[in-house]
Design goal:
218 residues; 6 helices
């Protein structure tokens, strides 16, 4: 077998330039993001977080539709059955009253809960003296969120924007992303609790209907 010939180094300037360009490109892809790149990525992440908030609100509104359908079924049965079919005394009457009471109480509780999930989450306005008056490297100047902008003097806000740094904007976007993440975590936990309550309402309504049928047959 012939010995393997080692590669001969090339002195071609164009080849060396191409390799150096590839090396720098790989280093840029694997290294730290540029400030402008971080700004774009965090802006995209904030939009995604806001989309998640809207998705959670849509799920809550759909849950309200489900509750309305369940109440419609109960009302239809009560109207069609008439007062003579629903037991009002004895064991069956007490069961129906207990189940109906539990259903009504849980319905109002989950309606209240849904409203609390959908309500705007307003933070108390900060004191003007607590807001930054200078732009510090890498620190949030708090000039993006409306709650931080409204208490400021116009001249102070304009001066801050004249002195604004990219890393200060990125720091504030990171703070906003953290706040939105916590809001989403709380919202989706509330949505899960709401749908668990709807499952319980379905069970109670089903048991109530079975009780009415059993009372009518026995």
């Amino acid at each position: 077998m012939d010995p393997v010939t080692p590669p001969v180094p090339t002195d071609d300037a164009e080849e060396l330039k191409r390799r150096e360009k590839d090396r720098r490109r790989l280093e840029a892809e694997r290294g730290l993001l540029e400030p402008s790149q971080r700004y774009r990525v965090m802006n995209d992440s904030i939009r995604q977080a806001q989309d998640l908030i809207e998705l959670a609100d849509k799920k809550v509104r759909f849950a309200l539709v489900i509750i309305s359908v369940l109440n419609g079924v109960l009302l239809f049965v009560a109207v069609q059955a008439g007062p003579g079919v629903l037991p009002r005394s004895g064991l069956w009457g007490r069961l129906v009253q207990a189940e109906l009471t539990a259903y009504v109480v849980l319905t109002f509780y989950h309606l209240w809960h849904a409203i609390s999930v959908l309500r705007p989450r307003l933070a108390p306005p900060p004191a003007p003296e607590s807001l930054p008056t200078t732009v510090a490297p890498g620190a949030s100047a708090r000039v993006l969120f409306y709650g931080d902008v409204a208490p400021r003097e116009g001249a102070t806000l304009r001066r801050l924007w004249d002195e604004m740094r990219q890393d200060s904007i990125n720091a504030e976007l990171a703070d906003q992303l953290l706040i939105l993440g916590r809001i989403n975590q709380a919202k989706f936990a509330d949505v899960a609790k709401l749908y668990a309550g709807i499952r319980l309402l379905v069970i109670i309504l089903g048991v109530l209907l079975l009780t009415v049928v059993a009372a009518a047959l026995l």
